[in-house]
Amino acid sequence: MSDLYAIGYDDLGTAMRVREQVMGLQKQHLIDLADAVVVENRDGKIKLHQAQSTAAAGAAGGALWGGVIGLLFLSPLLGMAIGAGFGALGGSMADIGVEDNFMREVGRELEPGHAALFLLVREMTEDKVVPQLAPYGGRLIRSSLSSEGEARLKEMVVAARAQQAA
Hints:
With 166 residues, this protein is α+β, with helices and mostly antiparallel strands. The chain has helices spanning 12-27, 54-72, 76-93, 100-108, 126-133, 147-165, and strands at residues 3-9, 31-42, 45-50, 115-124, 139-143. A hairpin with a 2-residue loop joins strand 2 and strand 3 (45-50).
């Protein structure tokens, strides 16, 4: 089961930097993400900044399979083009991770100019991840954690900030 975290920031730039930091932590295998999306409230208009494009991933997979099928019919380029088109269409229609409507709903609660980072976390090494993210500040807007788990997370953030300040 994954845990959802929605962390609010005062500006888009900070939320984007934190997402990049989290992506770096994922490469170090300290966190395993199912999704990472920045939601921006741009004067009442909600914009979602997806970490990766499902359309692009679908196009790449479709091109590969289209090329293989095209080889069978002696037209690999045509097969790749058709496969990429159908793959992109399928990928753009797939909603993997946090539901877009939910993120937009929470985004409407943000003050204009503010942003939130949504993380759908499969696994995380909390004692290594939280101190890396604490210096950026932010406030926990929503989570799927229990009340006790949320309180423990907030305590870890306060402790990590205190350690950074010392």
